[in-house]
Design a protein that fits this description.
By secondary structure, the chain is an alpha/beta fold. It has one domain (4-241): Rossmann fold (3-Layer(aba) Sandwich), CATH 3.40.50. Helices cover 35% and strands 27% of the residues. It has a 6-stranded mixed β-sheet. A 4-stranded antiparallel β-sheet has the order 2-1-4-5, covered by helices on one side. The structure holds adenosine-5'-triphosphate (ATP). Adenosine-5'-triphosphate (ATP) binds at residues 13, 20, 22, 40, 42-48.
Length: 242
């Protein structure tokens, strides 16, 4: 069974007298451990779809089921709990709290979970190591480069071991070299930690880092490509899952 099932999701907005339908009966299945990219012209509904899957927004019709839970039918209170336990969100601009250190920013989502202080510390250190920033734990955002700030944002998104991580143009604010480093990092987290990732991007090269590429166009979602996974890396994936 796929980890994420988006079933015939429709979302309409009114703009004055006009009605627009960024998502028109969109369906999508994402397997555990898959890395999916989503492209499309500006205003086609990429963020809308991402936010539906992140349970921040609700469809007008259709259902979204994640790991057996129909998130489109949960109450607001249960959704907030579901999000804290299951979702990581990587923003275009990292959205770090300026008065907190890298360590404290990464700790924030863990404060919503029923885990001990020692387990929190352990997870933060694992996340800092995963993004190669252990030596910057006590730095404030203003003391970090743009790429390092985004890596803190990524560590914060994965620290609670979410089932799903969504990224809305995670390289949109970065120069080409730093963008490539962030994409390589996302790919590594996907392959080594088996993180399931859905990334919105405007950059066709960035989209190719994902296993499958999709495009939104006039309310419809089409798959535009599939990156061949080398046999060796497929084997590593399998071992990780077994
Ligand atoms: N809360 C809202 N109320 C009214 N219209 C909205 C709302 N949110 C989004 N829209 C409209 O829905 C359409 C899709 O928006 P969305 O932000 O999902 O597009 P996008 O593909 O992510 O765009 P971009 O690439 O520019 O970020 C746009 O026309 C937008 O203006």
């Amino acid at each position: 069974m796929p980890l994420i099932e988006v079933i015939e999701v429709t979302k309409k907005y009114r703009k004055g007298d006009e009605s627009i339908t960024p998502l028109d009966a969109v369906s999508l299945e994402i397997e555990q451990g898959e890395f999916i990219s989503l492209m499309g012209s500006s205003g086609t509904g990429k963020s809308t779809l991402l936010n539906m899957i992140a349970s921040i927004d609700r469809p007008d019709s259709g259902r979204i089921i994640i790991d057996g839970t129909e998130i489109t039918s949960l109450s607001r209170t249960r959704l907030a709990k579901w999000r804290a336990e299951n979702l990581g969100y990587i923003f275009q601009t990292h959205n770090l709290v300026p008065v907190l250190t890298a360590y404290e920013n990464i700790e924030l989502p863990l404060l919503l979970l029923p885990i001990s202080a020692s387990e929190r510390k352990r997870r933060i250190e694992v996340a800092l190591r995963a993004v190669d920033l252990l030596d910057r734990a006590d730095h404030y955002p203003r003391q970090l480069s743009g790429g390092q700030e985004q890596r803190v944002g990524i560590a914060r998104a994965i620290v609670s071991h979410p089932k799903v991580v969504v990224a809305d143009e995670p390289t949109g604010d970065l120069d080409p070299v730093t963008s490539r480093q962030i994409l390589d990092l996302l790919k590594r987290l996907n392959e080594q930690l088996n993180v399931t990732l859905l990334m919105v991007t405007h950059d066709a090269d960035a989209a190719l880092v994902a296993d499958k590429q999709f495009r939104l166009d006039h309310g419809h979602l089409v798959q535009t490509g599939r990156t061949e996974v080398p046999v060796q890396s497929r084997e590593i994936h399998k071992q990780h899952r077994d």
